[in-house]
Amino acid sequence: MNVDTLLGRGAARMFPGTPGHHGVLPPLLVVLTLVTGLVDAVSYLGLHHVFVANMTGNVVFLGFALAGGTGLSAVASTLAGVAFLTGALVGGRLAPRIAEPVRLFALLVAAHAVLVAAALVTALAAHVTYVLIVLLALGMGMQNAVVRRLAVPDLTTTVLTMTLTGLAADPPGPAGVRRLLSVAAMFGGALAGGLLQRSHGTAAALAPAVLLLVAVALAAGASARPVPA
After folding, report:
1. d(Cα 114, Cα 135) in Å, to the nearest integer?
2. How many CB atoms lie within 10 A of CB 97?
3. Contact 43/133 with Cβ under 8 angstroms?
4. Is residue 86 assigned to a domain?
């Protein structure tokens, strides 16, 4: 029995009602949602009150900053937005070149891990705020591009508005399980990231994000690898 089969069966048990063709992706996307909470905790609490994953909030912060709101930076919000769009552009242009969705997912998550690792090293060496913002937002843009292409229901990894709306508006069912897991993962990542950022600094908060991204990339890569005859 190969890795893809084992992970796929585990996903079916954890995410009832999720179409089977999504295979190993649902549990891995929940882990990426947790990573989003960690990374946005770092960017908001440690980098000029800016989001690098939640672009809705970031656009609002840019408006507040231009209106003269205190504690906000228009430069930081603009950099985050531009870097996020650049990452999404890279992910979007790469997607047609790789036919296998899980292989594309593994590649872009691995690239995201490299960018977050670079941000961790930067935080330890010099803590250049704008460099950190660019590195983290680039990675989140790539993540959003591949997640959008995969289109797994209720698991966007960064935006919870419609997830919470569906949780309240729709009758209970399998979709509610996925939505609850997504919300719990985001909350858990934000809580853990916030505690680590406030107690030990940016590098400590980014370290678990790097480890989780590497684990997701390896799991996806193993499931995408052809099985020897």
Report:
1. 9
2. 8
3. yes
4. yes
In a domain, 155, yes or no: yes
Residue 95 covered by a domain: yes
How many independent structural domains does the chain possess? 1
Residue 202 belongs to a domain with what CATH number? 1.20.1250
CA distances to 6, 79, 228 from 52, rounded to whole Å, are: 34, 9, 41
> Of 11, 8, 222, 187, which Cα lies nearest the Cα of 109?
222
CA-CA distance, 105 to 162, in Å (whole number)?
A: 23
* Residue 3, domain member (yes or no): no
Q: State the burial class of residue 206 (Cβ atoms within 10 Å of its Cβ: 0-12, 13-18, 19+).
A: buried
In the predicted structure, residue 54 carries a pLDDT above the cut 70: yes
Contact 37, 192 (CB under 8 A): yes
> pLDDT for 187-219, tens place per residue?
999 999 999 999 999 999 999 999 999 999 999
End-to-end CA distance of the chain: 13
Tokens of 47: 């980098």
**Residue 39 near residue 140 (C-beta atoms within 8 A):** yes
Contact 35, 212 (CB under 8 A): yes
Q: Structural domain of residue 108, as residue ranges?
A: 34-224
Q: Quick one: CA dihedral 200, 203, 208, 209, positive or negative?
A: positive
Provide the sign of the torsion angle of the four alpha carbons 86, 87, 88, 91, taken in this order. Answer: positive
The reported pLDDT for the residue numbered 229 is 45
What sign does the CA torsion over 112, 18, 27, 43 have? positive
